[in-house]
């Protein structure tokens, strides 16, 4: 099975995640599955009743795709990723904001853990995202790391799906000529890939005076971007995988949707 999985908990953030996921599903032809993760002792009946009521309210928006739901019990990130793995989902979508009427939403460590351990890309959406604006501009930062280009196929697929323009942003983290040469080379490779794929794009390279996150976000502000695509640059921990500093900062500071791609993900929406 292949679908788009949406973390849902009745909060405004997760409701917005459903709205955008419906648009993605309609454009990609993928079915939707909502996942509610309840407490072990939480009554399931009112949850089902409310989900079914809400699903009925948006059913008219579905265009040839299906939407169902699953209720799981346990830790949010673990159960969401287990369902995604069982379904072989192509994308996980979660909304981020404060407290919902039932439980905490996908914020803080839940979000980070979901992304760090997901085997497919995760799209995070803030409650204050402007959903009245089309997905016109997508920022794709490119640095000198070995896996930085792995996110390009996913970004290209989104650009084609939504008719967006990709903004390839080469980031010079040093004045060292070797580092700059690596970034220039990667950006040229990306340009060639996107050109052959017929993806509307522009590219430029800039120096990083502060840090990668701030430079990327300032550029996104300048072009009024609608989404940013990043790699998770995971770091190992004794207990689990955690996100590196750049990914955590982007997820924390960005008001725009963030598509997080785990290194070595080569399937799914990249096809």
Structural account:
With 271 residues, the protein is of the alpha/beta class. The protein has two domains: 3-126, Rossmann fold, CATH 3.40.50; 137-239, HUPs (Rossmann fold, 3-Layer(aba) Sandwich). The protein has eight helices and twelve strands. The two termini are 16 Å apart.
State the fourth-level CATH superfamily of the largest domain.
Answer: HUPs
Q: How many distinct folded domains?
A: 2
Helix and strand sequence: EHEHEHEHEEHEHEHEEEHE
Looking at the overall shape, the CATH architecture of the largest domain is: 3-Layer(aba) Sandwich
Secondary-structure-derived class: alpha/beta
How many helical elements? 8
Would you report the number of β strands? 12
Radius of gyration: 18 Å
User: What integer is the average pLDDT?
Assistant: 86
Poorly predicted residue ranges = 98-107, 234-242, 266-271
In helices, the fraction of residues equals 25-40%
Quick recap of the structure?
This protein is an alpha/beta fold and 271 residues long.
